Amino acid sequence: MKNNWNDDVAKQRKRGFNLPPDDYVYGIKSFPASVEVDGVAAALKQYCTFEQCNEFIPKKLIVRDFIAMNKATAKLGLTKTKDVDHFRALHDIKKEICFYNCTRTKKKSIPSEIVHGIATRTAPPIRDLIQNKYLHNWLHQNSIRRCKELLKCENAKNVSRTVYLTKASLLRQHRPKIDSKLSWKIPYFEKVSGIYCTNK
């Protein structure tokens, strides 16, 4: 029983985090002494301004462009890993990765004549409304549609209704001929006539 005893049973759960060690320094500690800190509030921010960050972080970083190298190997028809590695060793294609100002896109200027939302529909002229022009156009379109449907039905009737025979239909209609001759018999039984014997 003592071997199965669990030490974590009946213990309180730890809520929260432990304090840092005694030698921990709060505030800005990663920058050199040349950077001036304006008071305690600025020291406790744990981050620097945009101008100070630009001094320590490079604006451009040059790295190998594997996408361009893979495209070049595909164009040359190199598919094996050895060939691809050999190509990468001889042809080193690089690209620049920009930070901050390079990545910021310029704001597109919105033209003054642009209309936000759904454009308003032009109002129909009053003359067309009074003359019921839209009703006449609708009736005319319906009559054209009905004429097309009638022509389609007539053309369907005039189409020849000949049934094309396929191999499956021919096999279905086939009736094999049955010979009227009797099946083969042993010569001995040909002379013997049939005898019906009923024991009642």
TrEMBL record:
Classification via PANTHER family: CILIA- AND FLAGELLA-ASSOCIATED PROTEIN 77
Family matches, as Pfam families: CFAP77
Protein name: Uncharacterized protein
